[in-house]
Task: structure prediction
Amino acid sequence: MVQSEDGTSLDTQKMDGIRKSVELDFDHVVWNEGGKSSHSSDIETRPVLVDLLSEIEKGNVKHLYVYNTDRLSRNDQTWSIIRWKLKSNDVVVYTNTGRIDLSNPLDDLLMGLLSEISQYDNKIRTERSRRGKFFKVQQGFYQGGPPPYGYKNEKKRLVENPEESQWVRKMYEMYLNGQSVHEIRRLLNQNQVTPRRKKPYWSLGSINKILRNTIYVGWYDYTDKKMGETVCVETPVLVDRITWDSVQTRINKTQERKHQINRSKHFYLLRDFMVCGHCGQKMSGKIGANNHFYYCPRKERNWVKDDNYEGTWDRGRGCSMVRSLNIGRTDQIVWDSILKIVKESKTLREQYRQEVLRKVTKSREKSVSISKKLEKSRKSLKKDLREVEQTIADFETSILLKRHSGDPEQIREKLNQELELVKEKLSGVDQEEKHLRDSQRWVNWLDQFENDVDSKKDYSDEEKKEFLEGVLEKIVVHYDKDQNKHSLEIEFNLPIVQDELSYLNPGRPIDGWEVLEGSSRFVNELPVNQGGRPRGS
Ligand SMILES: [Zn+2]
Result:
């Protein structure tokens, strides 16, 4: 069996084998694998080897010459298959160094060893070439493979490919001028500009990649994962930095916007809380062009269509929640009633009051130390003021007595400026004190609480949902066929529905009170709109 590889030519291997067969007085057949590599791990990709193995199985091959055992396979698994076949069919193996009998335990061991050595060799070889590649890249050579669009590989270095680079620049320019990736693609295809890959047309993804790639502003990172090292490789600049940066900004903005649109398109305020009261399934939502609705995904119509469903329900029956709920109307009614309950809840008011008291106590403590500081600075400022006033008086006296030389106007101006400054600082201290006193006034926490609840009406959708997550457990939806209405049982995580205050001393609220738990459930009823059965529901 021969292979073209490494130093030994096919002919040498073949002649060696034939010589051996003559020497032993055997008939010979040459199994020439040509360029097929023993690196190849799949037996399937080596038809000659497969033929050989099947002849061995039939008992037609009793002696096998290979130039070197690693010609058979460098792959552990493949090699063990081959070895097992050779051994179980009593094939004697010869190599350029002599005869190997696989039934002889020593030879067997040797074969195994040789194969392991050749595998080890292979590992070292790939390791060496990997490191070699990294160091080449470090020296500025291209890593190999097809060069990125806009470049060509010249003497293993990236150089500009003018035929392509003009289009790279055009892409950046168009995008910067507000044109879309679709428009860029249209232009490229119209001009029969082809990408490097097999496909004759540009994909949006490949254009996006070009618009994102730092290689066009002159660098890219090459990482050797095994070594964990990264080298920054310089490349010929095709696009200037300002253009490149602006393009990145536009891409990011576009993506952000897309993300937001997607979110609002699929936003459901209540869906995640809603459970079908008939079958226990989580409710679904659908936002279509003409109608937006919540519905039970197991309702009859869908049910009949779903042939693959294997559940506990009888085929064809489905869920009896056959009417869907209009999203806008449901959201409005449920949100309003939740806010009303929250606003009236004594439990939540009490919680809020406690929180306010805690804050007030804290700020009182803080304000005592602030007020001390203010008093101190007031004293020192007043002292400053007296000094400046005294200086001005002395100065004016010396002018009057004509004891003074130099420009009196300049000095007077400076002294007056100093005076104003100190006065200003003093009034600042006064204001701060007033502010501090104001903040210590009695806090009307109930007003604050109600304002706080009312302000939730202006929440964004996301904020509303976040608030609901804090107070809601779930919403169980029922449909009453006879009355043609839905009922929504809102379950709160606290018993805040119609909770009450009980005063310890009914005549004297000031003696304190306790909060009596209410219910944690509240039911909203929604009649189904007449004729309001939306399509697809
Ligand atoms: Zn259901």
About this structure: The chain is about 50% helix and 15% strand. The two ends are 73 Å apart (CA to CA). The pocket of zinc ion is lined by residues 276, 278-279, 281, 296, 298, 319, 321 (CB under 6 Å).
